[in-house]
Specification:
It is built from five helices and no strands. It is mostly helical and about 100 residues long. It has two domains: about 70 residues, no CATH class; about 30 residues. The longest helix is centred in the last third of the chain and has 21 residues. The termini are far apart.
Length: about 100
């Protein structure tokens, strides 16, 4: 996407009725954003703002999917494995010098 073009800067005005319908019928902020032609974070923000005004019972919350890895501090086996690797790499460096 070319950010410099005027076409990419045009904001589409989405009526609240349309937003609420699409948001409610979508399974995620990403899907709602795609259907509305806006970024998922924008859809999520707009839903949060409408939720504050209209109420929790009117604007649904989509479950947040957290993708990622387990926190290193909680993985004792991985900590030990990385410590051993670090020691090994230090020894390899010393041997190479």
């Amino acid at each position: 996407m070319d950010i410099g073009t005027s076409e990419s800067r045009i904001k589409r005005k989405i009526p609240n009725e349309e937003f609420l319908r699409v948001w409610t019928l979508s399974s995620s902020p990403r899907e709602a954003g795609e259907r509305l032609g806006i970024e998922p974070v924008s859809a999520r923000t707009r839903a949060a703002n409408l939720r504050k005004i209209l109420g929790e019972d009117v604007v649904i919350r989509h479950p947040r999917v957290v993708k990622g890895r387990k926190a290193l501090k909680d993985d004792k086996e991985e900590i030990e494995r990385l410590r051993e690797l670090g020691k090994k790499f230090i020894e390899e460096k010393k041997d190479a010098e």
